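Sat 14:20. Reprocessing the chain from the morning session after the first attempt stalled halfway. Input below, unchanged.
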Amino acid sequence: MSQALTIRQDGALDFLSLGALVHRLDPGVIPFRKATECHIHVSGGEFNCAANLADCFGLQTGIASAMVDYPIGDLVRERVKAMGVKPFYKLFKHNGVNGPNIAAVYSDRGQGVRAPVVFYNRSNEAGALLKPGDFDWKAIFGQGVRWFHSGGIFAALSETTGELVIEAAQAAKEAGAVVSFDLNYREKLWNIAGGAQRAVEVLARIVKNVDVLVGNEEDLQKGLGLPGPEVASKSKLDPGTFIEMINKVVEQHPHIKVVATTLREVHSTNHHSWSAVAWINGETHVAPVAELDVLDRVGGGDGFASGFFYGLLTGESPADSVKLGWAHGALLTTFPGDTTMATLEQVKSFAKGGSARIQR
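Finished this time. Tokens:
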């Protein structure tokens, strides 16, 4: 069995992420082919966690990312600052025509029986140009960083981004930080970046440095090249097949101390059943099942990870940490955009079984 997770008690930053910043265009319930206006959300799986932990949970967080000197970059920079996240930017100059760019995500919310639709423009993305040597990790981690986080979407952007994650994770380990990684397997991205075999090879090298792994059954199977369970779950809320896969993960990567994921049954675009499960130092903890009236599902998984990490960082019990993640992820689906608008009081209340009764 793995040794218990050891989290340093001090540091200038409680949490540091490495990943690409993106801007998401959101026409609400109107599909893009009929849209006349959009809201703009600043996002990125790694940034979402840093933003949530700063804005809702009050931790000191940072993001290492690419930044471009054009108006979209200015917009993104302002939102990062507004969420209370300390930036460590590699700066790129826009040529006024084709980039480098801050990637665009296009995502309507769907409605009822009509599912949300998500597509991208990651052409000439500044984040994909990031490479080893772009950040002074010795100086950054020298300030004291308690927890470092990155993810599989960023690792898949180019041949260099995966190598940068490995460089950063190794520096984090040397500095005594906990290292977490969200597998977030995206087949389309890996197909461009070398295919399934390269994904397994790159992610295996990253996971060698990881203490806390986030990912569902598909992420574990495709990202780590693990065989799937012989018997599939009867329900997506059944943690059985995920728990069954934990043994395979730990057998392949015995240094892993925590594996966690959300469990979601989609009844319609606006009605989800929601739970979560985590394996922590040999014990499994499962959150309750909540019935969600979903406004915007994007970012719910990052919302879970944020609350879960907060619980572990602040010394909550493993069971309570899972509930905090579950509660924050649930609340995040009630807000537009990818990052939190919840308060810590709301998260703790829901985690303890709070209701939606009016607050006077």
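The mean pLDDT is 94.
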